[in-house]
């Protein structure tokens, strides 16, 4: 394990060049004093040529209240200029509402526990802020959080446990900006125009959204079972004696481990990122390519902006909707991105119950009564619904991992979920620290001080040529020693297999404990985080920290962080192959990062296509039998796959056939039988290999894929883009990229709809792309792309403009410095303020 030395870190403010404003908008530039008053006086005097177009009416500056200047450039990207953190939050809230008011408002309905009131109790909850399947479950959970004043208590904590004054100001300002937009503008998005559920918000709502995002991989995944868990039948009644209550049933350990692995290994969130050290680049500065994979619809979208407080902060990048700080981005000195980690952000405690009362559990023989949380939810066209939740010192009682794998609450045993991120409001401060950073060391300093990253790794590069990978995240402090000493019989299977700890909750000596450098008890401190600095490259594609760099494996971390010397996913293998070759080649530039993003190479194809075509050609009579027992002529497929270029470019012929075949092959052939050469920890990037075409499922999968495409009227050699597309405003846009299961870097996980022509929508995939480096100037060299565009509103001109760029594998040249912002041919200046 690579550990860093810990010293006292201090934040340095970003030194900015003199700000410039354009006097005649393409002829004469005037120097603008950095002081906030002079800045805003000058901004208010911009000439008519810089005035907003008819899409955004100009707002006149106010003598009091919060205000900001928003400069829009191409693709509706706002550059928000403010004189304080509260004003910056105001401008950010305003601009986010302008693009995403319906999505944001829907999220605030969730956080207030009012989805059932407006949309019906049984309707799907959407999944943006939790894994709740129904509105009722979502409401019962989030209303419970609100009624117990969880967020208020965290806001009252002094920093760094609670948010800093700067972040509090940004949250307060964000709420004010959102509210001002609602008051001063008319909603044109048909998703919520004239809807009664679009209401003003408060700082508390903004903080609650941040907490929901932090805990979405912990408590957020278990909302259904948290709100449904009830004591065994007969508890608390005359029939509820120990002899009449259900006997303890031990869950199947292997089923629990498998379910937990699937739960935290699902494709709902992902990403790639790579940082290169200066000696691999053309000019000695670092390079960073960030490629997060996130939902294309709903409240987990990214949103682009630049945030500037002259002399204090100047950062550009993507924010998660409803949050005031830049989540991933860059400034004049450093760039960073995140990838969803393999760390398990929650654990379970198995409770020993009082034989006389299943709502009381024992710790060191002493009884503790569960806390009863009774919540009432208003329901549309129906009577209010009241339900009870049960909470312990560890967290809520849960009764399942999923619908197939119960964790039974019996007369003797129950299970409690522990999620340290359910008390984590530190993400925004950590991100704000990144925005102020001047180096990768400063990025580490922010991580060390705030310890607020909930479920992701951090990859960074800086102007001086440093690279950084760290799995610095909030995890329950489950050491291997603690798991060895305190795991229950069930936990002794689940922890080694999946990293899920199930600890004996009846023993006080099984408490999680405290690291001396941890900001709060029960989590790991910075010294234990898997970290690698200044390697020629650091890369992560949601694999474990172990293979961040194939030549410098990281080891020595606790199992809860992830595994060591275990098989890698195809996307990790392909990513390491690509970036290691790039580092070896050297002389890298931002253009090389752009090429890597859209290479669309299919590692699964490189590994297997030759074997597939040989086995295909050897099938007797050129036929194979499908799962329905029918013979299928697959001879044409052999030639198509032989000619395939092994990419997922929109023009690639054979890509769709291979994609459909590979998905069916994984279903038909068990993982242990898929390869002839097994995995070897001595050669992790190149093993396993050699497809086992002798497996009975091979020919079945090929037959099924061919039959499926023919039944849909799709030619086996059809170009991918003809059948992998999205429709925006009636325009059909072909989509490049492919599934992570194929190992493709540029991930798309599209929806298959054969009747509609193939893959016809993308719920999830590449999102806020950034390729960042530095040259000799003060301005970073950055290319960005928000794949699904800036606005969900179909009436917006920025609903699909960047999606068209993504279709054509094109990028946006970032306008970071003042001279670039002010020279934009699409420049609009909007001055926004509170109206008192």
Automatic annotation (TrEMBL):
<comment type="similarity">
    <text>Belongs to the peptidase S45 family.</text>
</comment>
<dbReference type="InterPro" id="IPR029055">
    <property type="entry name" value="Ntn_hydrolases_N"/>
</dbReference>
<dbReference type="InterPro" id="IPR043146">
    <property type="entry name" value="Penicillin_amidase_N_B-knob"/>
</dbReference>
<dbReference type="GO" id="GO:0017000">
    <property type="term" value="P:antibiotic biosynthetic process"/>
</dbReference>
<dbReference type="InterPro" id="IPR023343">
    <property type="entry name" value="Penicillin_amidase_dom1"/>
</dbReference>
<keyword id="KW-0865">Zymogen</keyword>
<feature type="compositionally biased region" description="Low complexity">
    <location>
        <begin position="228"/>
        <end position="244"/>
    </location>
</feature>
<dbReference type="GO" id="GO:0016811">
    <property type="term" value="F:hydrolase activity, acting on carbon-nitrogen (but not peptide) bonds, in linear amides"/>
</dbReference>
<protein>
    <submittedName>
        <fullName>Penicillin V acylase</fullName>
    </submittedName>
</protein>
<dbReference type="InterPro" id="IPR043147">
    <property type="entry name" value="Penicillin_amidase_A-knob"/>
</dbReference>
<keyword id="KW-0378">Hydrolase</keyword>
<feature type="region of interest" description="Disordered">
    <location>
        <begin position="228"/>
        <end position="252"/>
    </location>
</feature>
<dbReference type="InterPro" id="IPR002692">
    <property type="entry name" value="S45"/>
</dbReference>
<keyword id="KW-0732">Signal</keyword>
<dbReference type="Pfam" id="PF01804">
    <property type="entry name" value="Penicil_amidase"/>
</dbReference>
């Amino acid at each position: 394990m690579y550990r860093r030395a810990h010293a006292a870190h201090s934040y340095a403010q970003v030194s900015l060049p003199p700000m410039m404003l354009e006097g005649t908008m393409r002829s004469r530039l005037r120097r603008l004093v950095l002081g906030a008053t002079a800045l805003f006086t000058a901004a208010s005097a911009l000439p008519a040529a810089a005035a907003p177009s008819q899409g955004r009416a100009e707002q006149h500056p106010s003598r009091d209240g919060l205000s900001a200047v928003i400069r829009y450039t191409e693709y509706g990207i706002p550059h928000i200029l403010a004189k304080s953190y509260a004003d910056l939050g105001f401008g950010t809230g305003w601009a986010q509402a302008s693009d995403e008011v319906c999505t944001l408002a829907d999220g605030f309905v969730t956080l207030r526990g009012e989805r059932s009131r407006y949309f019906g109790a049984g309707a799907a909850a959407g999944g943006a802020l939790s894994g709740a399947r129904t509105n009722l479950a979502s409401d019962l959970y989030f209303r419970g959080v609100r009624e117990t004043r969880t967020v208020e208590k965290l806001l009252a904590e002094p920093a760094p446990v609670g948010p800093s004054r700067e972040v509090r100001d940004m949250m307060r300002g964000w709420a004010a900006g959102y509210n001002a937009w609602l008051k001063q503008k008319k909603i044109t998005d048909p998703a919520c125009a004239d809807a009664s559920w679009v209401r003003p918000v408060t700082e508390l709502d903004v903080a609650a959204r941040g907490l929901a995002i932090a805990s979405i991989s912990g408590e957020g995944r278990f909302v259904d079972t948290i709100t449904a868990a009830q004591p065994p039948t007969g508890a608390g009644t005359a029939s509820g004696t120990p002899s009449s209550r259900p006997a303890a049933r031990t869950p199947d350990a292997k089923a629990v481990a498998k379910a937990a692995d699937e739960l935290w290994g699902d494709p709902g969130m992902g990403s790639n990122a790579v940082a290169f050290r200066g000696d691999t680049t053309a000019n000695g500065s670092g390079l960073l390519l960030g490629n997060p994979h996130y939902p294309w619809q709903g409240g987990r979208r990214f949103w682009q902006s630049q945030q500037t407080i002259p002399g204090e902060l100047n950062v550009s990048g993507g924010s998660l909707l409803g949050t005031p700080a830049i989540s991933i981005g860059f400034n004049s000195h450093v760039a960073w991105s995140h990838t969803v980690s393999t760390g398990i952000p929650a654990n379970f405690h198995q409770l020993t119950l009082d034989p006389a009362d299943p709502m009381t559990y024992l710790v060191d023989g002493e009884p503790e009564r569960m806390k009863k949380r009774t919540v009432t939810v208003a329901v549309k066209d129906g009577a209010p619904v009241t339900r009870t939740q049960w909470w312990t010192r560890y967290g809520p009682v849960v009764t399942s991992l999923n619908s197939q794998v119960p964790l039974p609450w019996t007369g003797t045993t129950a299970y409690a979920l522990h999620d340290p991120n359910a008390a984590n409001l530190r993400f925004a401060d950590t991100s704000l620290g990144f925005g102020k950073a001047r180096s990768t060391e400063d990025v580490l300093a922010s991580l060390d001080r705030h310890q607020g990253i909930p479920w992701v790794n951090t990859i960074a590069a800086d102007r001086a040529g440093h690279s950084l990978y760290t799995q610095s995240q909030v995890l329950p402090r489950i050491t291997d020693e603690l798991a060895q000493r305190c795991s229950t019989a069930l936990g002794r299977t689940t922890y080694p297999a999946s990293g899920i700890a199930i600890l004996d909750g009846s023993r006080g000596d099984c408490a999680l404990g405290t690291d001396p450098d941890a900001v709060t008890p029960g989590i790991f401190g910075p010294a234990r985080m898997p970290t690698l600095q200044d390697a020629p490259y650091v890369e992560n594609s949601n694999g474990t920290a172990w293979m961040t760099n194939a030549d410098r494996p990281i080891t020595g971390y606790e199992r809860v962080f992830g595994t060591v010397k275990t098989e890698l996913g195809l996307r990790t293998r392909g990513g390491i192959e690509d970036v290691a070759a790039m580092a070896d080649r050297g002389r890298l530039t931002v253009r090389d990062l752009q090429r890597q993003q859209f290479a669309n190479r299919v590692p699964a194809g490189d590994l297997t296509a030759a074997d597939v075509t040989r086995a295909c050609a050897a099938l007797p009579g050129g036929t194979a039998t499908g799962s329905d027992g029918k013979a299928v002529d697959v001879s044409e497929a052999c030639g198509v796959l032989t000619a395939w270029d092994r990419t997922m470019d929109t023009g690639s012929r054979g890509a769709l056939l291979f994609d459909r075949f590979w998905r069916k092959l994984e279903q038909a052939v068990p993982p242990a039988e898929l390869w002839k050469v097994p995995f070897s920890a001595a050669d992790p990037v190149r093993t396993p290999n050699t497809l086992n075409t002798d497996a009975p499922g091979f020919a079945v999968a090929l037959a099924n894929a061919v039959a499926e495409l023919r039944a849909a009227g799709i030619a086996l050699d059809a170009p991918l883009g003809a059948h992998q597309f999205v429709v925006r405003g009636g325009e059909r846009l072909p989509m490049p990229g492919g599934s992570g299961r194929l190992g493709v870097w540029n991930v798309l996980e599209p929806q298959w709809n054969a009747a509609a022509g193939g893959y016809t929508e993308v719920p999830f995939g590449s999102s806020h792309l950034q390729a960042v480096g530095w040259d000799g100037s003060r301005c970073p060299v950055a290319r960005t792309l928000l794949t699904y565009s800036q606005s969900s509103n179909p009436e917006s001109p920025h609903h699909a403009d960047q999606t068209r760029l993504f279709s054509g594998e094109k990028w946006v040249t970032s306008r970071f410095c003042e001279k670039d912002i002010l020279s934009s041919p699409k420049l609009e200046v909007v001055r926004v303020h509170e109206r008192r």
